[in-house]
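Support reply, case 0932

Customer input (verbatim):
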Amino acid sequence: VVSALKDGRPHVPYRDSKLTRLLQASLGGTARTALIACCAPGGDATGETKSTLEFAARARKVVVRAAPRDVAVDYQSLYEEVKDSIDDYRTRERKALDEVESLKDKEEATQQRILELERENDALKHALQRQQRPVVEGDQVDVIEQLHAKFNDDTEEAERRHAAELRTAQSRADAKIKAYRDAAEVSARECDAAEAALTGEREGHLASLKELRRVKAEFRETEARHAARVSELIEEVAAAKGEGEAKAQEADKAADALLKRVETLEVSRQEQLETDYVSRDAVAE
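Our regenerated output:
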């Protein structure tokens, strides 16, 4: 993996090892990575020390640059999705309330029908009482009593039937109201949870953006400080270079003067030798 990163190959075999697979994010150039090579001073570890140093030499040539990851979050789409879900829950709640109102209207209509039947029953009872005569035959009394009993039985049956229908409608309405209320509560909890999660993600992204701005500001300050220091160093190097050139010129001048002095002394010495020289003939004489 290190050799492939050093050579800049298009394919890096991270999957060949579990360690390189785990360290892919660090070795792939998205983080600042520090590598420590440990060597042993013993003579028996020469081979391992050599291979470790060669590995470290290859790893030094791997170029890694830390780069922030831009996480794109579409807050508008998230807001629209949550808003649509809330609108859907509200629509379902309105439908449930409308159905409850409809059931209430049906219940009121049933109550009105029961009251009408009771009034009709009372009217029929009064009519039968008015139709009765003080003296009637035995057969007529029996017929009237049978009719009256049948009418009472029919009335009670109708009242029982309407009461059963009313209880059934009431139980159905209560069950639907409970189901709609439970669904509305679940929807409200889900909406609150989604809103809380969205708020947490938004706060996390805002914190990341603040940290990124802070790092950028520190980087700009450091870059400006380093640029100023580099400018100062360039000026110092230029000044030192000028001083070195001046000193070199002075040294050249001193060397030239010294050379001329040496040449002058050599000429003077030669002349002195020629003056002090005595030939053999002069000595013989």
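We compared this against your earlier run and they match. Two observations from our side: Helices lie at 2-7, 18-22, 24-27, 46-60, 75-131, 138-276, 280-284. Residues 68 and 84 are 34 Å apart (CA to CA). Please reopen the case if you see a mismatch on your end.
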